[in-house]
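Entry:
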Amino acid sequence: MMTTVTRFGRWLYGQPYILLSITAMSWGGNIVLGREAAGHIPPLALAQTRWIGAFVVLVIFLWPRLKQDWPVIRQNVGILLLLSFVGITLYNSLAYEGLQFTQAINGALMQSTAPFWIALWSLILFGDRLTIGQIGGIVLSGAGVLTIITGGDASQLANLSINPGDILLIIAMASYALYACLLRKRPPIHPLSFLVLTIGLGGLMLLPATAIEYASGFTMQADKQTILSLIYVILIATILAYICFNRGVELIGPNRAGPFFHLIPVTASLLAIVFLGETFHLFHAIGYGLILGGIFLAQRFSS
């Protein structure tokens, strides 16, 4: 039995499309949860607890691996600090803070800007240009996102108002896109060592802002929703999602991975249908089809 599980794990670790789909599903749930947790958990406290919890869970099992990788880690502190700051500290604090002031639908829309930011950073930093297929895939899947969030009625876009929360989410996505692009500069250490380090360093750099938030009197409510939210963000939205995302980008690169962010609103809407009793409509099917078609187009004509 153990051999079968190990063999499956090794196979899965080489499947970028499945890994990136798992990431999108995990983060789609995180958007809904982040919005529902507003008022129960302060945004920075949620991010801080997320990283501390994930760090403790991982470091217990991975301490021997970290000691083995330490010489390389010590030589690459600069890039590790940068990746931790933009991918952990800045992205998550801004995203959770933004979700306190905006609707979940706006959050999904802001998340869908990720492929644009990834393409921009890739061009600025490394001179990478999108292929026609990748551009078409981003446009097609972007149209699918708009179909879902507007209910198939484009006039609904006129009713979406931009607020400070939306601005914070846009900056958060630009920050995470930078992290995705800089992953190619990741030092040659074990992927799980890299994950433990970035989580630990990112959480450490978040401590001052969390302390200020706590001093303001915004404290965490110790209730069932808080506990379930923390379990989800630690195990699923952090450990599982970051392992899958880092490996997926490693296998196919940031530009090809970018369109998978458009699966996030698919997951969010499906969760709302299954768990919140919302109704499935034709526009859902059309939106899902456009998104999947865009992802296929971007992968099929990536060169």
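DSSP finds 13 helices and no strands in the chain.
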